Amino acid sequence: MREVVLCFPVRTDSSRAIEVLLGHKKTGFGKGNIVGLGGGIEPGEIPEQAALRELQEESGLIGDPEALEHQGQVIFLFPTRENWDMRVQLFVLNCFEGEPTETVEIRPEWFHLDRIPFDHMWADARHWLPRVLLGERLEVQATYLEDLSVVDIQINLPDPASGS
């Protein structure tokens, strides 16, 4: 299973997220969708390093490692395309430098939290992304049919005593 990260930079007002930076995917897996910023974890990297690296590569933003919050994970299962299966670590970031810049892979755009374009995203995002952006920590499993319509979403809250 491929190990991946997603980083969701947020703009805040009185310490509450009001906007999130997402990207119009121009190439590769998910092309044509609006996605979180992220990608694969490279050998020797920990997820936090990968999240900040991918953020900079895809948007030009430089994230503050101290402000990076791990909000859980999503396991994506594609029974008809098992080589697509991935475990995605989710991060929210509220402190960064720079302005988002379009790259070869992503055209970044800020979206108000009540206007996230879920109709242009992977079908599972509407079920967990708003909760993650509001600070909820989740463990999600999304299973997709062959036509890439989601067939099953399972959302669990991690046990705080387990440290996961």
From TrEMBL:
Nudix hydrolase domain segment(s): 1-134
Enzyme class, broadest EC rank: hydrolase
Presence of keyword 4Fe-4S: no
InterPro entries: 8ODP, NUDIX_hydrolase-like_dom_sf, NUDIX_hydrolase_CS, NUDIX_hydrolase_dom
EC number(s) per entry: 3.6.1.56
Assembly behavior: Monomer.
Similarity-based family: Belongs to the Nudix hydrolase family.
Name listed for the protein in its UniProt record: Oxidized purine nucleoside triphosphate hydrolase
